[in-house]
Specification:
With 324 residues, the chain is of the alpha/beta class. 47% of the residues lie in helices and 17% in strands. InterPro entries: Cyclic-di-GMP_PDE-like (IPR050706), EAL_dom (IPR001633), EAL_sf (IPR035919).
């Protein structure tokens, strides 16, 4: 399996004693290799990342001398990321996915999605020291792109993952400063918290309060996917909730899903929380959700994520879907 993966990327390897040396002409090729191979299988090894010329003799004696310079898997990934990071991030695309106001049929907001040329989630699961940088880069590029492309008072939904919030107040403070530097008012921003269950309740409550004081709105993602989501909804009082798309899929055919979503809508509206349903792909789903009182809708039924938001086209499609 290992040798087949090596050959798949056009790389070369050589066994020297008990070590396996992999040769790559480009750092990107080695990164892709790390992403494809089972990380658990690789964690027990030490790695040597070093430029060598054609005259360097690589043998057991060479490896023994270089042992102090070896690194573990996480450090190797981080070094490789830094080696190719400028090229990787130059090619990052920011896509915008519209969120429709079901009362007016107008585009209420766009969710910004970061799409790098490599599998960023897998990449971040290996290297941690560049994780925060990656997340920050994507947010900054999303803010810059939104400031240029989103018109009027259209809001921007932007994701935050708790694994990057070791210092939430600094992270969010820097984020707000960045938004202002691009003339994007905090009142147009909605912070979408994903997997917020990983953080202590008191921490989440404090930085939500901080964000609201700065004029930023807050959304909880994937509400309804489990008990913890309902608990956090009751404790945190966000401005918006996004109902888990698994509850939305074929909801018009499933009475149990209807009961759950109806209760979520009622609970949210009782606390003056607006409801967004994402993952809508069928007109029948939209019709049921609209009559149930959902405030906003998002999904491929209206449009796929695009680097160039086209509100007028999306609103034409929304009008047809809502009025027919």
């Amino acid at each position: 399996m290992f040798s087949e993966t090596i050959k798949h990327y056009g790389l070369y390897y050589q066994v020297v004693g008990s070590a396996v040396l992999v040769f790559a002409q480009r750092g990107e090729d080695l990164l892709e290799l790390l992403l494809d191979i089972d990380k658990e299988m690789l964690k027990g090894f030490r790695y040597l990342l070093k430029d060598v010329d054609d005259n360097t003799k690589i043998d057991a004696f060479y490896l023994i001398r270089e042992v102090p310079n070896t690194v573990n898997l996480e450090e190797l990934a981080d070094r490789l990321i830094h080696t190719v990071i400028s090229d990787v991030f130059y090619e990052v695309n920011i896509l915008f996915h519209p969120i429709i106001d079901l009362k007016t049929g107008k585009v209420f907001a766009y969710e910004a999605l970061c799409r790098p040329p490599i599998k960023i989630t897998d990449l971040l699961s290996i290297g941690k020291s560049t994780s925060a940088y990656t997340e920050d880069f994507c947010r900054t590029k999303a803010i810059k792109s939104a400031s240029e492309k989103l018109k009027g008072n259209t809001k921007l939904f932007i994701n935050f993952h708790p694994r990057f919030l070791t210092d939430p107040f600094k992270v969010f403070g820097d984020f707000i400063s960045t938004a202002l530097s691009y003339n994007l008012q905090p009142s147009r921003v909605v912070i979408e918290l994903t997997e917020y269950e990983e953080l202590r309740l008191s921490v989440v409550r404090n930085f939500i309060s901080f964000l609201k004081e700065e004029g930023v709105k807050v959304a909880l993602d994937d509400v309804g996917s489990g008990y913890s989501g309902l608990f956090y909804l009751s404790e945190l009082k966000p401005d918006y909730i996004k109902i888990d798309m698994e509850l939305i899929r074929d909801i018009h055919k499933n009475n149990f899903k209807k009961v759950i979503v109806n209760h979520l809508i009622q609970m949210a509206h009782t606390e003056n929380i607006r409801v967004v349903c994402e993952g809508i792909e069928k007109k029948e789903e939209l019709e049921w959700l609209r009559h149930a009182g959902v405030d906003y809708a998002q999904g491929f039924l209206f449009a796929k994520p695009s680097p160039e938001p086209n509100s007028s086209l999306v609103e034409k499609i929304a009008k047809i879907l809502i009025e027919t």
